[in-house]
Amino acid sequence: SGAGGIGLAQLPSMFNEAAAARETASIGSPTKGGEALNAGPLVSLYYDNDISVSDVSDSISKAPTADFISSNSQSVNFMASKGYIDKNDFIREMSNKGCNALASYSVFDAISSGKGGIVSPVVYDQRLENYRQGSGEGEVASSFVTDLNGFLAVKVGAFVGLVFCLLVDFGLVAKAGIEGFLS
Question: According to DSSP H, which parts of the chain are helical?
Fold first, then answer.
């Protein structure tokens, strides 16, 4: 069925997002090391690597404003041209500031709440301010950990929901095929 084909086409993109974040851990991105972020098992499974609390804290403190990112945007999509924050622009700016790439990915993922690679500048600035208020030297705000787990819950929920719908779709197609064959 057409819906099944569309659904199947989405599965690789879900895995590619996680793979892009995981790949950054192996490219030799600078790390401050230290204690690993204790954000639960989903974080370890999704990123397949420990994220340093010091790296996350550094990324939160160095993250530029939404205005700065959108004024330096190199993205060609419509939303970025309207001032929204594109993930690639954010990661590029964080790299320019010498931040750990995996920590930068996790910060953007927490800010986006799993709703894609584009974030409203208002939401971006509000969440970043919340993270900064709750963070200190070598500490990460609990609101960051909550948002990061929310991001992962959305991703897991979307994946499980998509797989369930695909199974139902293929089951209905198989049932119709069998009934048509037997009649």
Answer: 2-25, 41-47, 53-62, 66-71, 78-81, 87-96, 101-112, 121-134, 142-182
Is residue 55 within 8 A of residue 104, CB to CB? The reply is no
Which amino acid type is present at position 47?
A: Y
Q: Judge contact between 87 and 108, C-beta under 8 A.
A: yes
Nearest to 118 by CA among 88, 141, 95, 96: 88
* Cα–Cα dist 161/151, whole Å: 15
- Nearest 5°: CA angle at 153, between 44 and 81? 100
pTM greater than the 0.85 cutoff? no
* 134 CA to centre of own chain: 21
Q: Is 65 helix (H, G, I), strand (E, B) or coil?
A: coil
Q: Are strands 85-86 and 118-119 parallel, antiparallel or unpaired?
A: antiparallel
Question: How many residues are given for the chain?
Answer: 183
88-121 pLDDT, tens digit per residue, is: 999 999 999 989 888 898 899 999 887 778 999 9
* Cα 143 off chain centre by: 16
State pLDDT tens for residues 61-71.
999 999 999 98
